[in-house]
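tool_call: predict_structure(chain=1)
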Amino acid sequence: MTVPQLVPYTRPEVSTYFNTVETPSCLSLADTELYLARVELSPALALQRPSLQLLSDLLVANHTHIPYDSSVYHVSNEDWSGPSKPIVFCGGKDGMQLDGPGNFRRIVHGNQGGNCYAINSIFSALLRSFGFVVSEVGARGYLHRGKDAAVAGWAWSPVGHETPIVEWEGSLGKYVCDAGFGGGGCPYPVLLKDGETSPAISDSESFLLKSERLPTNPGSLLTDAPSGWTFYRRIIPPNTRIDSHLTAGEGPGHWSPVMHFTIETLDPGNILMAQWFHETHPAAPFSKFFVVSRLLADGRRRTLSFGAAPAHMNAGGAAKPTLAKLYTKDGINNAECDVEWMETATGPVGAALRRDFGFKI
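tool_result:
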């Protein structure tokens, strides 16, 4: 069998986005330098050649600076200024704007975030500008986040998540590099190899990759479950630590599924179609849930949220239906700190987004 030759993309003079299916999204040198500054990396890195160290640095910086963010679904950018007004679910008019420079402007210039399609598509464009070869594939999320599937059963979302698969000339193979999963995602590149493991920033979790058919319950409607890859996250009891990701499975706890994906590139049309569902359909996961959440450099997570959390998310602690909750979660002791409650209105929520997440709104 002939192995396809890797052909890296040439960095364009002007950034390209999803406005044409013939041209892959790829950032210009100037936009690459702006992106690096956004995640507090030196713009001088823009001239580096692809390597595992560079890929790891970029992915970690993305996780710790760019939040998973559904705010654009619910609030138009213009509504953050002026008199405070109640936040209405699905009241935003701007959208993620994947098919043009709007997504880049919001994330890089506006210091905001996005959903998986927004974050991973612009992250893929950044990687291509260095010469990495990126395939954006579709994935299913596990709906009982943090649970043991042997107890809770196998419950999966539709294919509604985007995951970048990355390689380059001289790499050991393909790497999973998901910058936009949010809580429970792996902040380091993971080699696409059965049984490969990865640490997390916090000693409270680690990750495992398995090559397998999509695990399902007996009698599942998925008669032809796809063969692919399942990402698992190690869940351990409070106040315990993982000494090494290589031996995490030998200690207390269980492996909880995170997502399952197949190696099949999504073309821009597929991504835009899925994004249209997330922005317009009443059954979309974040249509009734406001969340902005960012991994901190010490492995904790800072989150602002309110509403009915999607089935695959743990909203964190007790809910107050009419208030938004801002808190930091520590994975080691499973405790929350720096908790604030506020009205679900553009005034107090906007102030928290500016103060705690650096939003320029």
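agent: The two ends are 53 Å apart (CA to CA). Proceeding to next step.
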